[in-house]
Amino acid sequence: MPAQATSTDAASRPDFIQVDQFSFHYGPKQALFDIHMDIPEHQVTALIGPSGCGKSTLLRNLNRMNDLIEGVRHEGDIRIGGTSLYDPSVEVISLRKRVGMVFQKYNPFAKSIYENVVFSLRVAGRGRKTELDETVERALTDAALWDEVKDRLHDSAFGLSGGQQQRLCIARAIANQPEILLMDEPCAALDPLATLRIEDLIIGLKQRYTIVIVTHNMEQATRCSDRTAFLYMGKLVEYGPTLAMFERPKEPQTEAYITGRFS
Amino acid sequence: MTSPHILQDFDHAITTFRGELLSMAGKARHNLERAIRALLERNEELANAVIADDNDVDDHERRIDELGMEILTRFHPLASDLRLVISAMKISGNLERISDHATNIAKRARKMSARAEIQEITLIEPLYTLADQLLRDAIASFTDHDARLGASLHDRDKELDRMHKSVTAVYGERIENQNGRSEDYLHLILVVRSLERVGDLAVNIGEDAVFLEAAKDLRHSKDRSIS
Asked: A255 vs B80: CB contact, 8 Å cut-off?
């Protein structure tokens, strides 16, 4: 049985992330309408939909990245492990340690492989060499990159291939051991083989992290996600187990989109 | 009627694929009809034509497999498109077997045409009529996306099974009576058996039509509801 088809561990929470009647506005423009969905722990949840449907907006709300944009506001709530992201006690910086993010275009810093991985630890003032070394090995191993770079950790990150640079960004995102990993089209700039390596990595990473991925690639969603949400014009049209959705979608809009009949 | 794909070539490929299957279905059904006519009318020439034309149905099956593979490879179909490719490829296998049964009947018709007529050969006609109705409706359930019609075939096939048993018993009795025509009655028993199998294959096609339209797998299932 493929890894993505396995059921949730008994110990994992089916409603680890709760998006509760959540609406979001960029100034006068409403981007999300009353989104309601539970995202299970230790599973891969894919957000799909046409450009402008709100999937990246929803993703970036899961670690309050959108707070950086002027004029935004929201209604409803998002909770992680039962705690609202908007609770006054929640510090955005510590939230982003719990919720790591990987972007479409790999963006390593102009530093060595080693320094990229430990960057957030150094910023946090954690500079003890033993801890940094252990973190580098663990994060690069988890990102399936250790064997390829262990002999050149102090070389520039820019010397890596595109796929390796993206895996380095994943290693950087998990260096702080977040609970959740957000991925915004992480393979959009990669060739097919590098894409498959990232997908293989995603399937393995869900054992330790809860992963939410935005993708335009529906084959990618079918290959590596457990659940899929289809958004259209800021609304959640359908959300359910990935294989069921791609074999027999319930909503005509979903059927039209995934069969390429959408206009 | 579903709206067209944005990728027009996908629609062209699906249209060609469906057309190939419908052409195959028409030929398989025509072969069965001609095989029975060759048997009842003792027409050796017609029987030979059916046997020769089976190759044409085999070619359709290969072509459908090629087109199905091409669609899977080029367009990565999902949802109803994926179910269409899977169900059509399975239906073509069932149609090929129906045409094989027509060929078997034609071969028996050819052997029997040189010998004196058996009056009780007419017992075959109602079986053929029902088998052909089941086959016609099975094909229609696929072409018309009619899951209800497809699901109805399972129960309707029971009547064909009952007729098969009854007519086989009559022919079996004649063999036991040793009237010197045992070989011909054995041929007729096997013709009846072929028609009963055509009914089963029509049920399979109906189940594929249900899978296409309702995304439900009725095979070996006690729950025959399609909703």
From this structure: yes
